[in-house]
């Protein structure tokens, strides 16, 4: 059963995500955010499409490039900003920063800065769902670089061996930092390899929010029929630098024409065009105010006390 | 010691089995996995046939994928289960360091207490015939080094059962160290369920002349050394720390302050090892204690018996060092002591 | 160019391997071999076939179940026996035992007791051959269990990315200790996975020495035309227990009928039948005397001195 | 120090680049690999464009496969090459422990000297803005613990160049530790090629009141602490061990025997760490030395600046502890010292 794709909702989530990161860019040179940031700008369609397809019950595993996954999930924006500021009302009371966002209220698990490390945990979570006879599907975002790691394939093997309910969302932006995929593996092989590992894998043709939405819905329907791991490979292009708020165009490590094209074909604009101007304006207002509130929340929050250093090492 | 009348004479392996059996009955979230846990041998009997009692999903074999399977356990723990991952040799944990140190130890902290990782990593250590360079290592210091992980290494069957139960119930990742040469050691063990607290050591033998601290199997050898030392009038106090992280520094400090001499018998290499930690703590916090350490020689473990013997500390080498520290005759040569568990070992593994 | 399969040579190598391990069984209860032993009995056809196909230049990486690879390579038998006895004339002066055999004279590299650990090293060796513009192909033996490890797939990826001259010989005896392959991966997937990782992979239909010989020759010819990694999956059955000299039949962990069949179809017997009785007898005599000499060599050797303990920690 | 007249003022990163450049010219078997080594940044400039000079096979990027790529380097070393594997963070070495500890450290031993593994593992450590729990760790103790591996952690540009050259020429696996906050530090460095020997430390400042031993970046902070201590009349002797395995125990023992006080400033957690090793050695081998250690707090590294500051030792906290050990005023509060390399750091990474 396919819910209809809700353009208005998609535009709202997309804009919220985009504008939040643009706010980070705007404020970064104030040095209030003393945290490395790995921006998702250019890749948001994936997070938005996936999030619109899944329910509140789904558990999310993401990574250091997790802003879009977090925001499109409508996880707590105030807390995210407070965390970026290192404040005590942040998602980890300032102890985690951008690379370790988490919001259990939205079943968004703590993210890791070590590539591929959360993959087996997502699989383990899916094992637990099956163990407890619980409904639900685990959503596991990762990059193309993550598939270079052996632990990725060990994880897929275990997931297929136990027919676990999990969807791997591979965000293939073709790069690991400045290293192109072709320097890391031959023939763009992710989908084919995943299949050989017993995982139902599809490379999405398009790259619009709706394409990713539809692909996720299809997976969920399949899993409802038969518990089995799926992988969706999503093509995307990161507009900015690997880390930080620059665009690293001076480094010339990739074809800048492709970047320009991607920016021209921004799906945010396509979504906007599909909506009445009044709706667009209302959403823009809402988004701006949400973000401004979140920044104010961060500004107004206190830093943690020094004596919190030892909290939560053990439980 | 637990004072219930209901005690049975069982061995260390059986004690571990009882802990698993009872905790699986007690909490349906507890499950065991690892290479061969459900095979006919069931990891030295400690998990034998538990799947027949509790179902395949609660005691299951796995692919040889130590890195991912550690992550799988962590993920299951995040979902509220209580996994026990069993390793045939601790040497294989070198494949799991990323998950244990970068992930399991950090998740509580980076989520500000929202999530915990109640996983138990059981790892067998220990020698026997020609295990050699890659099947003899003991990395307790690697885990003691890292905040967020607990480490426990019981020596007696009694402590083995209780410590495994505490580890399973603990809300933190616990590395649980079992020495292969202890599995057959017998002792009186309560039939009911009980816990051995983390952070509490035990004085196994009282004495005033020197404090000897062992770890896992070297506690046994330290007790044998204490016997030898009696014959030259040295009364050694032997301490089993049981819990390595947290560690009962108080117990060791107060014993060392009494005897003024501390010998740490490591079950591993000494550089940046367990023994260096114990000695450093005493050197910093107590006055005028003479300290020494003995442990694995600073080489990979050789296989040939003559070199293997030279590689490991033993009751005599411990006793000789202790006696020297007490000002005894430097040429004293104590009689050979039978390490029955080692002598009686017949291969192949 | 295909050299003709030399039955006499094959029989000799096979018999030497088989009898050597039978001698281990015979002597094991004397406790003179204080070393775990992982016997190859039942799997020798692979080592013999491969060895007959390759030249003296090929470098061999093997594992703890390496006796057959070592003996069929005609590596030093005296030293092997001395090593099993822990003597100073052994392959590691008694410091390595059965799990770490090595003989540089035959380009047989030190083996490892940690599953899959030598695989990337074999690949690195192949990288060095290419780096130095040297001829040669690396031979890398491993079990089916080794393919469960992530490092195996990382290694294959690197080998295909750099088109390295290496042949992976997968000895699929269907078990890792007592765990059947089906409990570790779905659908017997090794060849298919290897292909997805850019490796030229074949599952050998037969299981005779000559089948393995032919398959290896084919690989070598392919690599001569185009440097590219290959994997050959060889079906086999280990007659004895995983470790030690027993047969573990009491454990009932596998179908004992299949074991009986394998023993009945022993390729050693087929080879023997193809040879004149006089040749067979001469080879038997030769093999017996080689083995007896080797055992005597071991018996006559001294244990190392205690002060050798610290030799060769650093160089 | 090398006394050639031909010295240039260059920074630590440039010194490492020179070492690589010259050794690659000197020996065609030397090659460099690692994530991003041939990208436009070239690992802090230390390997920048070396492929343009020496070809792609000698400076190349790799897939994210730390475990296999360590093995690949070991295999290449076994074939007579001299690989240098560069890691952007030492935290990633947790993925390589099996290859390094179970393999690289053992191959010479188990082949009785037939084979050697001349590989250099370069690993960047060190803080800056909010690196957090997984990008701040420093595992020198893990490698010091293992016989068969050498460990070196130079502090000055001069030592960085020479030590990297020695490491490349060494026939053993070497873990080479580079602190990110040192890359920009400048110093006079000979233009020609030279070696810094393993196992030799350096007294960077002489003093009679207390011995302070740092490691990597904490040597810098120890020197700053020594400056502060002067103002209260305490003359600290500051030692840079440079080589952590083997370590120059003699130098530290004799300094501590002179000053009677030893403070070790760790660049990592202290339990079973570098500092526990140094103190243990002195506690065993010298008489009547007062010992202390300071290092990372026993928690994962937090990201928020206020907690990050509390997490790391700094010139003041070092000076305060040293002053107390010398019987100085316990309430002394030295002025803030500028750690310019840390203050001047602007993100993002
Ligand atoms: C195990 C590990 N190796 C290397 C790194 C350094 N690193 C951080 S992000 C990254 C790129 C990962 O690429 P990909 O998975 O494609 O994700 P992307 O950043 O493109 O979203 C690398 C190499 C790391 N964090 N962890
Ligand atoms: C990394 C690692 N995990 C587990 C083990 C224990 N172990 C030794 S041999 C073996 C089975 C390996 O099976 P396979 O690769 O098929 O080789 P076989 O023994 O069948 O020849 C196992 C699990 C090990 N030595 N190393
Ligand atoms: Mg990418
Ligand atoms: Mg097998």
Order of helices and strands of chain B: EHEHEHEHHEHEHEEEEHEEHEHEHHH
Low-confidence stretches of chain A: none
Structurally, the number of domains of chain A stands at: 1
**Total DSSP E strands of chain B:** 14
Largest interface: B-D, 45 and 45 residues
Most strands sheet of chain B: 7 strands, mixed
Helix content of chain B: 25-40%
CATH superfamily membership of the largest domain in chain B, which one? Thiamin diphosphate (ThDP)-binding fold, Pyr/PP domains
**Order of strands in the sheet with most strands of chain A:** 1-2-3-7-6
Terminal CA distance of chain B = 33 Å
The CATH homologous superfamily of chain A corresponds to Thiamin diphosphate (ThDP)-binding fold, Pyr/PP domains
What is the number of independent domains of chain B?
A: 2
Keywords:
heterotetramer, A: 315 residues, alpha/beta, Rossmann fold, two-stranded antiparallel sheet, B: 349 residues, 2 domains, five-stranded mixed β-sheet, 13 helices, globular, binds thiamine diphosphate
Short description:
The complex is a heterotetramer, with 2 copies of chain A (about 325 residues) and 2 copies of chain B (about 350 residues). Chain A is of the alpha/beta class.
Describe the structure.
In chain A, a hairpin with a 2-residue loop joins strand 4 (175-176) and strand 5 (179-180). Chain A has 315 residues and is of the alpha/beta class. In chain A, the strands form two sheets. A five-stranded parallel sheet of chain A has the order 1-2-3-7-6, with helices on both faces. Chain A contains eleven helices and seven strands. By secondary structure, chain B is of the alpha/beta class. A seven-stranded mixed sheet of chain B has the order 3-2-4-5-7-6-12, sandwiched between helices. Chain B has a five-stranded mixed sheet with strand order 9-11-10-13-14, with helices on both faces. A two-stranded antiparallel ribbon of chain B has the order 1-8. Chain B has 13 helices and 14 strands. The A-B interface holds A 59, 91-93, 95-96, 100, 102, 104, 109-110, 112, 114, 117-132, 150-151, 154-155, 157-158, 161, 311-315 and B 31, 57, 62-63, 65, 67-81, 83, 98-99, 102-103, 107-116, 147-148, 150, 171-172. Bound molecules: thiamine diphosphate (TPP) (2 copies) and magnesium ion (MG) (2 copies). One thiamine diphosphate sits between chains C (65, 113-115, 143-146, 171, 173, 175-177, 242) and B (35, 64, 66, 88, 92, 95). Residues 143-145, 173, 175-176 of chain C line the site of one magnesium ion.
């Amino acid at each position: 059963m396919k819910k209809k794709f809700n353009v208005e909702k998609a535009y709202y989530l997309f804009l919220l995500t985009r504008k939040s990161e643009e706010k980070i860019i705007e404020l970064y040179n104030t040095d209030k955010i003393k945290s490395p940031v790995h921006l998702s700008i250019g890749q948001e369609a994936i997070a938005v499409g996936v999030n619109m397809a899944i329910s509140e019950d789904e558990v999310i595993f993401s990574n250091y490039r997790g802003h879009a996954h977090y925001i499109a999930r409508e996880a707590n924006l105030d807390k995210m900003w407070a965390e970026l500021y290192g404040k005590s009302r942040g998602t980890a009371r300032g102890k985690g920063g951008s690379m370790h966002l988490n919001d259990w209220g939205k079943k968004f698990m703590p993210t890791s800065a070590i590539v591929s490390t959360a993959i087996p945990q997502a699989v383990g979570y899916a094992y637990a769902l099956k163990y407890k006879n619980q409904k639900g599907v685990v959503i596991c975002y990762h990059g193309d670089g993550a598939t270079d790691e052996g632990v990725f394939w060990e994880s897929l093997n275990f997931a297929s061996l136990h027919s676990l309910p999990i969807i791997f969302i591979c965000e293939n932006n073709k790069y690991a930092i400045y290293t192109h995929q072709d320097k890391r593996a031959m023939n763009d092989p992710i989908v084919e390899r995943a299949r050989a590992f017993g995982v139902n894998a599809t490379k999405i043709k398009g790259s619009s929010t709706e394409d990713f939405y539809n692909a996720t819905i299809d997976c969920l329907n399949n899993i409802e029929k038969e518990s089995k791991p799926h992988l969706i490979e999503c093509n995307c292009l990161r507009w900015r630098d690997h880390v930080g708020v620059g665009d690293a165009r001076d480094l010339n490590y990739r074809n800048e024409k492709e970047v320009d094209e991607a920016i021209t074909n921004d799906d945010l604009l396509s979504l906007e065009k599909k909506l009445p101007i009044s709706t667009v304006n209302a959403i823009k207002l809402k988004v701006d105010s949400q973000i401004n509130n979140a920044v104010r929340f961060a500004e107004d929050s206190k830093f943690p006390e020094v004596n919190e250093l030892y909290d939560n090492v053990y439980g | 010691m637990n004072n219930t009348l209901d005690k049975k004479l069982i061995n260390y392996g059986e004690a571990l089995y009882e802990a698993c059996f009872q905790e699986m009955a007690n909490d349906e979230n507890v499950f065991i996995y690892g290479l061969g846990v459900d095979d006919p041998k069931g990891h030295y009997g400690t998990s034998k046939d538990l799947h027949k009692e509790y179902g395949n999903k609660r005691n299951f074999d796995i692919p040889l994928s130590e890195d991912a399977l550690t992550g799988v356990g962590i993920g299951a723990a995040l979902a509220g289960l209580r996994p026990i991952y069993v390793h045939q040799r601790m040497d294989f944990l070198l494949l799991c360091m990323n998950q244990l140190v970068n992930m399991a130890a950090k998740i509580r902290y980076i989520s500000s207490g929202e999530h915990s990782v109640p996983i138990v990593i059981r790892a067998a250590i220990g020698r026997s015939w020609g295990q050699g360079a890659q099947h003899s290592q003991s990395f307790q210091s690697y885990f003691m080094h890292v905040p967020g992980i607990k480490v426990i290494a019981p020596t007696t069957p009694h402590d083995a059962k209780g410590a495994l139960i505490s580890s399973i119930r603990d809300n933190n990742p616990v590395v649980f160290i079992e020495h292969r040469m202890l599995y057959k050691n017998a002792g009186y063990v309560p039939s009911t369920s009980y816990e051995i607290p983390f952070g509490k050591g035990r004085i196994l033998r009282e004495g005033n002349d020197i404090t000897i601290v062992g770890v896992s199997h070297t506690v046994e050898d330290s007790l044998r050394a204490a016997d030898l030392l009696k014959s030259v009038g040295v009364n050694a106090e032997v301490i089993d720390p049981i819990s390595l992280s947290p560690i009962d520094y108080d117990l060791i400090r107060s014993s060392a302050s009494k005897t003024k001499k501390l010998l740490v018998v490591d079950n591993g290499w000494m550089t940046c090892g367990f023994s260096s930690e114990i000695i450093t703590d005493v050197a910093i916090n107590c006055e005028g204690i003479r300290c020494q350490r003995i442990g694995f020689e600073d080489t990979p473990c050789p296989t040939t018996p003559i070199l293997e013997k030279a590689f490991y500390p033993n009751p005599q080498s411990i006793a000789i060092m202790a006696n020297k520290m007490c000002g005894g005759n430097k040429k004293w040569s104590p009689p050979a002591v039978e390490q029955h568990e080692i002598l009686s070992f017949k291969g192949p593994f």
